[in-house]
Amino acid sequence: MVCSPNTEYGLIRNHFCFFPSHLRKFAEQIRAHTLIESANRKIETMLISSMDTDGDPCEDFYEYACGKWETFHAVENKYHEAVSLVDYFTNKEIARYLKFMNRENKPSFVLKAHDYFLSCRNLDVYEPLEYLKRLNLYENLNMRSHHRRRLGVNIDWLRILAVMRKYGLNGIFVEEITLQRNDDATVTVIDLDKPVKNGGFQLTDYDDLKLLIQTLRRPMRRKSFQELWDQINAFEYRLKRLDLLDDPEGNILIKVKDLSIPWLKRYLELVVDELNPEMEISIQNKPYLQKVFKLINKYEPGFICKYLELRFLWHLNVEGPPNFTLEDCAGSTQTLMPYAIHWLFEQMHPELVKEMEEIHKMFQQLINHFSDSLKNNTNNFDYEQSQFLLNKLSNIQLKVGNLPRVNTEEKLNVFYKDLVTNPFDFYGNHLKLLKFSTQTMHKRLNYRISRDVDEFFYLEGSEIGFSSSPYFVQRANVVIVPVTSLQLPIYHPEADDIFKYSSLGFLLAHEIIHGFDYTGLGVDDNGNLNNAQLEGLVNNTRFGRKMHCLRYLNPAIIDEKIADISGLRLAYETYFKMHPKAHGQIRYMYGRPYDVEKVFFLNFSQFFCGPVSNTLVDTKEHGLDRDRVRDALQHFEEFSAVYFCPRGSKMRREKTCQLWRRRYSIYTEVTLKVRKLYNEFANACASTRNYQ
């Protein structure tokens, strides 16, 4: 054991350094045992305190496992499930650190992040119009359309739109993003399309507009506001109708110089620095892109300018800190400079960095078990299809912490070198960071994306930078686990394997399975699209029947249903494969006996637990948490067998949907048959008593 003083980042004091040397080893053993007991005890407390034992696990397991979660956590709308709980406390910790941070000997990228944090904290009153002053300074863009009319200056709405795109505004009239080529995942191209992200073009909300006008501190009479709203509403209605236009040509790959829509060509020239006319771009929905230009030109340029100004200011409001509190400013810093804060968090928690090797071992165990399942070939795939699946699985990689792992500090300094920040200019810093994000996306057009997982790091958007949830990068075949997720209630280094595999193990399995869901099967081991293989797999009679069964649960989110149901099975089977003697064992939690299998299901459910009326979770992508728990367990025969659920109960299905299932081991088959016989015997006894 190495004795050292307090570290600034880790905030860890090694008290045992004060022991005589011959007692240190014994003291360290006691400490390790205490940590293990403490970690397991915390998890058990969480499980027992969240349960509503008055509920029936065979009727509604979510209510049974999570019914008292809200009471135990005393939520107060600060967090609403496991990931937001981790995010909340992580953000509080980062906020405290940034508040008292000593800037001496820090890397330049950390100082720049700290500058933004300080500028956020130093802001007294939020004045959105200050953004427009900075925009005029940086881009020579005067947004005061009424002054322009008075001076006889032409209003170039296309240039205004392009400049605003540089600062993050997207999905207004046109959506401009970068995508990987279908046939080469290491090459990115610009994609021009109608607004499609988050369900398409987002209409202005009446209350949002009212709030924005109030923050602008420009007095506006009620009648004037209503006239403005009516204008915007009518205009957006016509924009939304263009969504209905068909796209007979579909996705087209062409060179910039061959782009036949002049306004789009000029838009690109204004948005992308040093645009190469030979560069290939992807374009979709050409009829829409042609019609939208004609529609805009039917309106007064002054109105379009005003409309863009309002949409841009609301965009800045959404992409900035909510209320400029200590935690809000820390969260905004993490969102806008994610890699700097990822690096800082790892310096604060070296004990979590040490866990990377353990997470890789867990990941490999899951991969190995899934490989055995594929080789089992219960779907009767032909040789070519089986090799396609096995090759893809062997190429899926894990990345713990979304940072380059070779010369990390040096590379982050280079990554942020062009960024200039000022601790007393929030508006300027915010605009510069948004522009930096767009420029970084465009810079990737000039080089290939590395397939080396140590060199690769994913460009995080605002929805990912703040989140501790693991995710799968489909075209890179990489599962990314934020280091912040290696905390309770998701993970603890000293927790027993039953808790590790039923929580983080499930999340890893869930992300692995995303490589083999409906979308994932259309991507090969190199990250390239392969629709021919997808068609062949789906046309397999047995596999297609299972896919149809899962689609019936919720066709809009079939990929998530596949990942939840198959991910639970993969994590469960992997744990019991590693711990075969755990089957049938009893674990005592606060003096109460629980089958180990039941403990697994209880801790699995903890990831989804939240308030009874949880309206804060976005359910578009994954569905309701209650449904996710219910569907995953209903379609897992072992669950109803472990809980002896009688026939006809809601949590027991006679026919289950499982896309990736291996044949049971003899032990599992015998166990299920014994439990099934017991269930039938219990049901028969109950029927006899009722008859008597």
From TrEMBL:
Residues 471-659 form the Peptidase M13 C-terminal domain. Residues 57-401 form the Peptidase M13 N-terminal domain. Its main location: membrane. The keyword Transit peptide does not apply. It comes from Glossina pallidipes (Tsetse fly). CDD domains: M13. Transmembrane segments: none annotated. PROSITE patterns: NEPRILYSIN. It comes from the Eukaryota. Keywords: Hydrolase, Metal-binding, Metalloprotease, Protease, Zinc. It is found in: Cell membrane. One of its GO terms (cellular component) is plasma membrane. Belongs to the peptidase M13 family. GO terms for biological process: protein processing. GO terms for molecular function: metal ion binding; metalloendopeptidase activity. Its cofactor is Zn(2+). It is a single-pass type II membrane protein. This is Peptidase M13 C-terminal domain-containing protein.
